[in-house]
Amino acid sequence: MTVGDGLARSGTVLTRTRTSARRLDRTRDEAIATAVIEVLGREGYAGLTMDAVALAAGVGKATIYRRWSSKADLLLSVLDVAGESPPVHADTGDLRDDLVAVLLSTLDLLAGPSGRATRSLLGALVDDPALARAFQAGPLARWDAAWTAVLDRAVDRGEITPAAAGSVVAELAPAVLCLRWLVTGRELDTSVVEEIVDRVVLPLLRGW
Amino acid sequence: MTVGDGLARSGTVLTRTRTSARRLDRTRDEAIATAVIEVLGREGYAGLTMDAVALAAGVGKATIYRRWSSKADLLLSVLDVAGESPPVHADTGDLRDDLVAVLLSTLDLLAGPSGRATRSLLGALVDDPALARAFQAGPLARWDAAWTAVLDRAVDRGEITPAAAGSVVAELAPAVLCLRWLVTGRELDTSVVEEIVDRVVLPLLRGW
Predict the structure, then answer these.
(1) Complex ipTM, two decimals?
(2) Is the CB of B46 inside 8 Å of chain A's CB atoms?
């Protein structure tokens, strides 16, 4: 649902008021999300306090506490804001190009502020099952939907079988990104993505 | 170096005294490592305080502070203790069986207390480059050595080429473990490991 939905459906004053309130909420949420990313970049996760976020966002601390109960919760809301546009929903008509496009868009995401927030969040998930479920239902599900759409279209075009699209092969490229980004720190660039797609994923998907 | 090395090399009283002190240090380190894992399991990373660890280990808080400056530092030392035995250095004479053995031993590791400690640590690494370097030089390097040994022996036996052993294919199985363990939470068991080894890694390594 976008901010304009309420207005498009109804012209009553009540609805307009609600829509304005929603727009204000939305502006404030974005200011807070930007503040979280700023504080995280400057102070790290240990320095991410409700006080610091309130100060950077120019809102009262009570405003923050009313909406978010913990800093992990706050981080998750940042990912919700950051996750609304990317990853690219590439539809080039070709599986190879779609895979490369989504993976490169993911690299951009991981290298940016929401990648940093995700990394901090993954550390917090282990002690918080509710947060883990929220992460899986939010940012992770959005990413997965973009990825699955690419594979499903290839199935529709007859490029690969449904079994291939649902196999472990479909995890290999995101898995290498995960390992290098979170654990080993090895380089992640266009040539790595293209090598994985061309020499690993495509041959296996087509022969599955 | 093991605790007995000093005694084996020299019979002087001074060396014996040093060795005893070292043995005491080692016993205390293990008690502290066990305490860290216990507190982490009970309270989570947020509840992992120097106070709680000192209490659980039955040592003075000053003892902890003298050796470790932060809880991330403490976590890393737990991984050092925990990482001394596994992963299995499998040498079955067959690449397929070696790969499966090391991966299954890694699954055991990830499912246990040092897996939990590693996950918390990965969250802390992002804000601490020194800790990140220590993680790479310690636990990660030990794991990598076990894995590389398996591939190098296959090269020596002529099963695969050096190019294959050094390629991105060598990362695929640990990458899927990483993705499922840290991010998606999908099941990780013997059948997943065997499918990845038999249908993904071995065919690609042999054809690289």
Answers:
(1) 0.79
(2) yes
